[in-house]
Amino acid sequence: MEFKRADRVADRISREISDILLKKINDPRIGFVTVTRVKCSDDLRNATVYFSIFGDDTKKKESMAGLKSALPFFQKEVFKRLDIKVPTLLYFRLDESLEEGNKIEKILKELRDERKESDDGKSTPDPA
Known about the structure:
By secondary structure, this protein is of the alpha+beta class. It is built from four helices and three strands, in the order αββααβα.
């Protein structure tokens, strides 16, 4: 299976942004942030970077504000590191799919527990 060039560039962008976050960004607003995925357009002109942020809603807003304020630096640094001819515009988005998945898993667990309790509560006739 061959990958499109956009997929390969998206993978590189993900690695480079993670590296920049670890080594070059010192904004105290940015907390525990993880790049979850990058979607790059086929023409490589646009890339949406999805982040997962650990913490409450306030911490998430602060971290996103810090990331967005550093966006020009990220763009310049990524473009320089990728060494491609077309400058790629980055867009940052909060990835809430992990949280949504956890919510669904919690609901399913509650349903399983309720079902188990109702099954355990049923009396079986005594064969004697």
